[in-house]
Design a protein that fits this description.
The protein is mainly beta. It is 8% helix and 63% strand.
Length: 250
C-alpha cells in the first residue's frame, strides 16, 4: 500500500511539472535599456567671446630716397576685444580627431597716440613742444576666418586654430594744427590654441590664445603739416590676445 501511494505521488508531481511547462509564462519581457549616447563634437555652433589684447607697432620713418630719418616710440596699445563667433565641427567617426571651421567678428578698443619720435641716433627730436605734433593708430573692429584641428578627450577638446585675420586700421598724423588720417581694412594671418569643455551636449565654454600679424603698410602724409610732409611712415602691427567664450551647439 505504501508503495502504491508513493508511486501515485511521484506520478502526480511529474504530471503537474509537465503541465506547468506547457502553460504560457506570466512574466513580461525584460525592460529595454538604451545604451548611453556617445558624446561627439560634430555640429554647427554659435557663441560669443570676450578678451584682452595687446599690440606692438613701432613706426619707422623714411624720406623720399627711402633713407631712415626717424623711428616712432612704440604705438603698442592694449584693450578689450569681444564679439560673436559661428562655426562647424566634424569629429571623424571612431577617432578623437575633430576638424572644424570658424569665423568671428569683434569690436576692439585698441587706440594709442604718441608725441615722441626718435631721430636715427635714437634721440628725441627737439623741434617744438610735444603738443606741436602727434601720431597714432586705432582699431575699432576686427575678425577672422580660421580652421580648427582638435583632439577630443571626451567632453574636453584641445585644439589649434589658424587662418586669415582682418581689421580696420586708422592711422593719423597732426602737426601745428594740420592733420591727416588714413583708414583701411588690413589683412594678415592668425595662429593660436585653445581648450574647450562641453558642459552638456549643447553648451560649451572655452579659453583661447591667438597671435596675429597684420604685416606692414606705409603712409605718406602730404597735408599733415610741415613736420610730416615729404616723409613715409611704415607701421608693422602684431597683436596678441587671450579670450574666453561660450558656445551653443545645435
Amino acid at each position: 500500500m505504501i508503495r502504491k501511494i508513493a508511486l501515485a505521488t511521484v506520478f502526480a508531481a511529474t504530471a503537474s511539472a509537465a503541465l506547468a511547462a506547457d502553460l504560457p509564462s506570466t512574466k513580461g519581457p525584460a525592460p529595454f535599456i538604451a545604451p548611453a549616447p556617445i558624446f561627439t563634437w560634430t555640429g554647427f555652433y554659435v557663441g560669443g567671446q570676450i578678451g584682452y589684447s595687446w599690440r606692438n607697432d613701432r613706426m619707422i620713418e623714411t624720406n623720399a630716397a627711402d633713407a631712415l630719418v626717424g623711428t616712432g616710440s612704440d604705438l603698442g596699445a592694449t584693450g578689450v576685444v569681444g564679439g560673436l563667433h559661428i562655426g562647424y565641427n566634424h569629429q571623424i567617426q571612431g577617432t578623437a580627431v575633430v576638424l572644424g571651421i570658424e569665423a568671428d567678428l569683434e569690436a576692439a578698443g585698441l587706440n594709442r597716440t604718441s608725441a615722441v619720435e626718435l631721430n636715427p641716433a635714437g634721440v628725441p627730436y627737439a623741434n617744438g613742444a610735444p603738443t606741436d605734433y602727434s601720431y597714432g593708430t586705432k582699431t575699432s573692429w576686427q575678425g577672422s576666418i580660421r580652421g580648427r584641428l582638435g583632439y577630443s578627450f571626451g567632453q574636453a577638446l584641445l585644439y589649434a586654430t589658424g587662418g586669415v585675420a582682418f581689421a580696420n586700421m586708422r592711422t593719423f598724423y597732426t602737426s601745428f594744427g594740420a592733420s591727416q588720417a588714413f583708414s583701411d581694412t588690413r589683412a594678415g594671418w592668425t595662429l593660436g590654441a585653445g581648450l574647450e569643455y562641453a558642459l552638456s551636449r549643447n553648451w560649451s565654454i572655452r579659453a583661447e590664445y591667438r597671435y596675429t600679424d597684420f604685416g606692414s603698410f606705409t603712409d605718406s602724409p602730404a597735408t599733415a603739416g610741415a613736420f610730416w610732409n615729404g616723409f613715409n611712415d611704415r607701421h608693422s602691427i602684431k597683436d596678441q590676445a587671450v579670450r574666453v567664450g561660450v558656445s551653443y551647439r545645435f
